Amino acid sequence: MAVTPNLQDYTSVTAGFSWEKEQSSLTGLPNNQGLNIAHEAIDRHATSELKDQVAFRFIHKDRSVMDCTYKDYLELTNRFANVLGELNVNKGDRIFSFLGRIPELYFAALGTLKKVAVFCPLFNVFGPEPVFQRLSRGDAKVLVTTKDLFEKKVRQLLERLPELKYVLLTDIDQDEDEQIRSLPRLMEQASDEFIIPPTDPEDPALLHFTSGTTGMPKGALHVHKAVLVHYVTGKYVLDFHPGDIYWCTADPGWVTGTSYGIIAPLVNGVTNVVDEEEFDATRWYSILEEQKVNVWYTAPTGIRRLMRMNINPREKYNLENLRLMLSVGEPLHAEAVVWGEKNFGMPFLDNWWQTETGGIMIANYRAMQVKPGSMGKPLPGVEAAIAEVIDDSFRIIEEPDKDGHLVLKRGWPSMFRTYLHDEERYNKSFHGDWYITGDLAKRDTEGYYWFVGRADDIIKTSGHMVGPFEVESALMEHPAIAEAAVIGKPDQLIGELVKAFIVLKPEQHADENLKMDITAHARRKLGPAVAPKEIAFIDNLPKTRSGKILRRLLKARELGLPEGDLSTLEQP
Ligand code: AMP
């Protein structure tokens, strides 16, 4: 049966849009006690006719399936909020998870929000160093993880993390000591009743780390009011309808896996499929079929992998329930959109946003004509523009088809409220009312936005943001390395791969053994997702006269591109 899109006419919805009006679709806490994400996502549904509907459908690695209804989740999240109470967690304290996509991650996230504490999920592929950086910069008080991850990557960090009061292990029966506790035991002892305390819409809720070009990862802090964007984008972009089965392939360690792998589907009252396993083409297709997925949100890396396989999905699988496919995270090239049309009978709808924006900002909508290769048009309620930014000067470029910085007008509800402990950097990312995204783009005559590139050296590899500085710092800890510089090198499959240029200390010899040793060191420290995939030895790194590494020049040389303005290059 044809399902009418929620957004049928982009122009009229945009013209009549107001955030206040949209807010009336949320209930807010009882007795005007404020706005809490977990209440909108779980509690209000668990006491409505949706209570017995499946909220989460977990597909375990072995393909067994576990369903949790909204009512089940009410109880689980209440218990977790009570566990935090038991551990003296207060409003604003930071609770981290370091887990795969298992049920504990999801009830910990929502239970933390109920307690008005701040939740920060970490990728379980990180090595000890990225974990340490984030736990310490985020002042983690509680960490939820598994015994295996704890032993391999966290126990060694405990001495350096004096603020970390508790580690809750999901798979031990008894507490190890005061600090290392059994989560199942705590959950069992906790009450399944909990009243969400008053929550100001501006109370911090979620912390997501993203990578910077200089310095260590930046913690973007989001508030409870962000739920309004999750609701609106769920309605207009993901086009949720009652009874929908939805699957987002992203991990909550990436903001997409939280905003759209937890919050948006629940706020909109649909069933959220979570697959614990990583990419596998036949597994993905069969999940779409078996789970009768209606709306599927994925990323270009996965789509490119599917495109390489010799599988015609519609011939092999029954995908009649699939109504909408969306993509985010990296440029989605026109061929992928067209491939979707040919092989699934519908295009992948690209959309754009980033950790700092907390929710989708630019999108293609089901009822709007798709221009393959374009990111689409701004979300109703969001004002985007292209600007010329040179040092302190800032000018909005009114003319179409001109490259410039993609900027957003301050004020959408899910805008990040600070970079934790780095107010200066936060302030620097704004010019007056405009947030400067760090991306370059252009807008065509019909108002569609087209991605041009990053304005900085940040690398996007398999959908992950990787800051060169973080990788370089870890490399420098290797005893043979004098200096290191890291760039993103275009790669057909994973978008960009991390490539390191290394200057060795004088007495060292560049050979394959050393390369392997450095690779092993990097993987141990950083984890395979972040560690360089290619290493080259080099005599000197190109630098500016002020001593900054010119990564851009390394990249141009690597790719055989023009070297650009070299007036600031220090001559070795
Ligand atoms: P993250 O904060 O990890 O979600 O990464 C955000 C960055 O990913 C953006 O600033 C862009 O550089 C890139 N990105 C996200 N979505 C898209 C898209 N649809 N097209 C091109 N680049 C994208």
Strand order of the largest sheet: 2-1-11-10-12-13-14-15-16
DSSP strand (E) fraction? 15-25%
Question: What ions, cofactors and ligands are bound?
Answer: adenosine monophosphate
The rough form would be described as: globular
Annotation keywords:
572 residues, alpha/beta, Rossmann fold, GMP Synthetase, Chain A, domain 3, 30% helix, binds adenosine monophosphate
Overview of the molecule:
The chain is an alpha/beta fold and 572 residues long. The protein folds into two domains: 10-439, Rossmann fold; 459-559, ANL, C-terminal domain (GMP Synthetase, Chain A, domain 3). The strands form six sheets. Strands 2-1-11-10-12-13-14-15-16 form a nine-stranded mixed beta sheet. Strands 17, 18, 19, 21, 22 and 23 form a six-stranded antiparallel beta sheet that branches. A five-stranded parallel beta sheet has the order 4-3-5-6-7, with helices on both faces. The radius of gyration is 24 Å and the shape is globular. The chain starts with 9 loop residues before the first helix and ends in a 13-residue tail after the last helix. Bound molecules: adenosine monophosphate (AMP). The site of adenosine monophosphate has 21 residues, from strand 14, strand 22 and strand 23.
